[in-house]
Amino acid sequence: MADLDQCSSTETVLDSEVLEAENNMNHESKLQFSEDEETLVVIMFNLVGERWSLIAGRIPGRIAEEIEKYWNSRYSSKSE
């Protein structure tokens, strides 16, 4: 019986590690923007500035936080 409990506990740890890895991969892939998305973000930013929710409303499947994070990682001059 102890072996069964240990096996179940090991499976639970492995399951949670797999889920965490999948979530990280999904998050990373969401931060990759297609060429069309990038072009649209640049155009919209030039038109409306840092109104991320307005920009996100023009890109299906994206949220304001993703757009802002992408913009800041790609175009922000804070790193200079």
Overall description:
- The structure is a single chain.
- The protein is mainly α and 80 residues long.
- The protein has 2 domains: 30 residues; 48 residues, Arc Repressor Mutant, subunit A (Orthogonal Bundle), CATH 1.10.10.
- It is built from 4 helices and no strands.
- It starts with a helix and ends in a 5-residue tail after the last helix.
- 5% of the residues are buried.
- Keywords: Developmental protein, DNA-binding, Nucleus, Transcription, Transcription regulation.
- Pfam families: Myb_DNA-binding (PF00249).
- Its main location: nucleus.
- It comes from Juglans regia (English walnut).
- This is MYB-like transcription factor ETC1.
Task: List its traits.
2 domains; 4 helices; 80 residues; mainly alpha; Arc Repressor Mutant, subunit A
- Helices and strands, in order, run as HHHH
What is the number of strand segments? Answer: 0
Low-confidence stretches: none
Largest sheet: none
CATH architecture of the largest domain: Orthogonal Bundle
| CATH hierarchy, class of the largest domain | Mainly Alpha
Q: Kindly, what is the distance between the CA atoms of the first and last residues, rounded to a whole number of angstroms? A: 60 Å
Percent range of helical residues: over 70%
The value of Rg in angstroms is 20 Å
Mean pLDDT: 79
Question: How much β-strand is present in the residues?
Answer: under 5%
Shape type: elongated
Which assembly state applies to the chains in this document? Answer: single chain
| CATH level-3 fold name of the largest domain | Arc Repressor Mutant, subunit A
Count of structural domains: 2
